[in-house]
Amino acid sequence: SRYPVTAVKSHKDVRFPVPGEAQPVGFSRDLLQVRIQGPNNYAFTVFVAHLKSQHGGDEADVRREAEARAAQQIIGAFQKANPRENVVVMGDFNDKPLEKPIQPLVNPQVSGLGLTDVIMKDLGNDAWVFTYHPQQYRSRIDYLLLSPSMLNEYVPKSVKLYKPFKQGE
Fold it and tell me: In the chain, at which residue ranges do the beta strands (DSSP E only) sit?
């Protein structure tokens, strides 16, 4: 970060149920929570997620959805305890925006978190809006979600994809 990280919290030890698993499990990769101190005494909290990959078919989807639900609960509890905090949730969710496993994070009606997917808001869901590049599997699996207070400060149409290639280029 260009700005100081003033607090770091790992959620790697959180355990949660996964349908079909006998014992509660943890995140495949950590759900990282950091507080960033920006200029002019401005601070905000970022949750960085890297959900279960798609390798493993239906079982991977079930695990990814369980991770998304666990992240939803952690972020929701944080928001409840810190209602005025600006929050960013970002990372590789390893699924397309409309797929069921990640709805607990990306769909405001399902999540209850009030987060807005600014990539979807500004760029839409057209074929050229992708973050995973292999021709056969091109899709958007990376996200930038903002809380309502953070969205109020967001400059519309300012989100950019790093080298967003269009089909055929």
Answer: 5-10, 32-37, 43-50, 87-92, 116-117, 142-146
Nearest partner of 150 among 83, 50, 80, judged by Cα: 83
**Tens of pLDDT, residues 59-118:** 999 999 999 999 999 999 999 999 999 999 999 998 888 889 999 999 988 999 999 999
Q: How far apart (Å, rounded) are the C-alpha atoms in residues 124 and 24? A: 36
CA 41 to chain centre: 25
Question: 11: number of CA atoms within 13 Å, CB side?
Answer: 26
CA 75-78-81 angle, to 5 degrees, is 150
| Cα–Cα distance list, 139 to 68, 101, 134, 166 (Å) | 19, 15, 9, 12
What is the phi-psi region of residue 57: left when phi exceeds 0, alpha when psi lies from -120 to 50, beta otherwise?
A: left
Assigned token pair, 153:
């400060």
